[in-house]
Design a protein that fits this description.
41% of the residues lie in helices and 15% in strands. By secondary structure, it is α/β, with parallel strands linked by helices. Strands 2-1-8-7-6-5-4-3 form an 8-stranded parallel sheet.
Length: 222
Amino acid sequence: MELPIILINFKCYEEATGEKAFKLAKLCEFVSFEYGLNISVAPQFADIKTIAEVEIPVFSQHIDPIESGAHTGHITALSVKEAGAVGTLINHSERKLDLGKIRRCVELAKNYNLISVCCSGNVEESKAIAQFAPDFIAYEPPELIGTGIPVSQTKPEVIKRIVDEVKRINPNIKIMCGAGISKGEDVKRALELGTVGVIPASGVVKAANPEDVLVDFAEAIK
């Protein structure tokens, strides 16, 4: 996985559903190729297979801590892998799991060669998740999600502490951050604090002109 990374969470926004999701992914692909930047996307489950045709990495928004079997309505690691995802979010603040389930999801992601991006809301949760050795931990304070108030500008000391604490536990885990990321300067500051990327959502998906936002991100990094 090339770094730095901009991993855009499509959530369940209407602006990123079905055909609109595919068009947004194609736009991400264009900016990614134009600037030589890793822009990845996490669409809704029903859109993974279609969007996997686009030449950028696709992540699942969630997996359940289960193997294949009689689990109606659940999402398996195998199913998202077969649909074309290269990785998955785990424990997003809008899809919280307890620590035991997070551990199992990380194990399943490893078993199916999926990149694991575990979200955390604070330092202590980040340290606990680090014990499971996911590929990434993404710090996203829930109180800032969707506010437009960038975590990298308002909680720099927390980001830096998470980077330092997780590195002490497992130096192979990489740190990302999200919540309120909507400008290039937000991304640049996040990288200066020791992260390897960001996870924006509404700041891109619901923007009046998503291309302008993506280009602003890319130019700030370059």
